[in-house]
Amino acid sequence: MSADAPTSTAGAARLAGKTAIVTGAARGIGRACATAFAAQGADLVLLDRAEDLPGVPYPLGTASQLAHTVTLCRDLGAAVLPVRADVRDLAALVAAVEQACERFGTVDVLVNNAGIAAPSGKTADEITEDEWSLMIDVDLSGAWRMTKAVGGVMTARRAGSIVNVASTAGLVGYRHFAGYVAAKHGIVGLTRATALDYAPMKVRVNALCPGSVRDDHAVEGRMLSEIARSLDVPVAEHEETFLQAQPMNALIEPEDVAAAAVWLASDESRQVTGSVLTVDGGFTTR
Ligand SMILES: NC(=O)c1ccc[n+]([C@@H]2O[C@H](COP(=O)([O-])OP(=O)(O)OC[C@H]3O[C@@H](n4cnc5c(N)ncnc54)[C@H](O)[C@@H]3O)[C@@H](O)[C@H]2O)c1
C-alpha cells in the first residue's frame, strides 16, 4: 500500500478537518447532504437563496428552513456559516467564498446542489424564452458560477472535490422537461470538462445523478410533488410510475444521495474524477 493511500475509515469521521460549501442547503437533498457532512466531521458553509424566485411556480426554501438546517448541523458538532445568496449572482458567490476562507481558512469541498424543477411541463416549442433562460441560469450556470468562485482557491492548494448534483435527467430525456433535461445534461458536460481542467491541480470534479427522490418530511423535500404538479399528475400516481420504472422498486431517499456525496467529497474517492455516479435504483440501466 502506498504511503498516501486512504487509511481505514472504520469509526473515523470521514470528512474531519474539511470545510464544505453546500448550495441549496435550506431543505431537501441539500439539507440531507449538510447533515451527513456534519455527522462526518465537516465544517459547513450553507448557502441558499431562501426566498421565492419569480418565474418558479412553487415555493423555494425559506430563511427558517435554512436556519433549521444550520441548527441540525451545529447540533452534530459542525461549525456553520449560513449564507443567503442566489446562484445567479456571481459577486455574491465570490463574497461567500471569501467569507468562508476568512472563517475556515479554505474550502475543501463544493456541493453544487441548488436547483429548480420548474417552469416545466411543456413541449420545447411552448417554453418561453424567459422560462428557458431561468432554468439554464439556475440549474446549469449556477453550478458554473460557484465553480468559478471557488476553483482558484482549490487549484492554488492543489486539493479539492466538487460534487455536481445532476439527475437522471442528465443522462436520459423526460417528456415536457426540455429545459431541465438540457440543464442537467449540461451539468454532466461541465463536470467532465472541469475534471480535465483541474486534474493536473489534483482537484476532483464528479457528477451525482439521483433518480426520483422521495419527498421526505424530515428534510422538507418537495421536488417530486412539484414535478408531478408540472405534469398535472397526482403525486401518488407519479410516485407509482417511478416505483415501477426504477428496477429496485423503491424511490431514492435523500440520505442515499447524501451518502454518495460524502464518498465523493472524502479522500476515499481520491482517484475518482470526471465520473457520473447514478443513485437511481437502476433506472438508467435499462
Ligand atoms: N428530488 C429529486 O427527485 C431530484 C432528483 C434528481 C436530482 N435532483 C436535484 O437535486 C437538487 C436538490 O433538489 P431537491 O429535491 O432537494 O429540491 P428542493 O426544491 O427541495 O431544494 C432546492 C433548494 O435549492 C434552493 N435554490 C433554488 N434556486 C436557488 C438559487 N437560484 N440560488 C440559491 N438557492 C436556490 C431552494 O431554495 C431550495 O432550498 C436539485 O439540483 C435537483 O435538480 C432532485
Automatic annotation (TrEMBL):
UniProt family annotation: Belongs to the short-chain dehydrogenases/reductases (SDR) family.
Domain of life: Bacteria
InterPro entries (UniProt xref): NAD(P)-bd_dom_sf, Sc_DH/Rdtase_CS, SDR_fam
Protein name: NAD(P)-dependent dehydrogenase, short-chain alcohol dehydrogenase family
Keywords: Oxidoreductase
GO MF term list: oxidoreductase activity, acting on the CH-OH group of donors, NAD or NADP as acceptor
Database matches in PROSITE patterns: ADH_SHORT
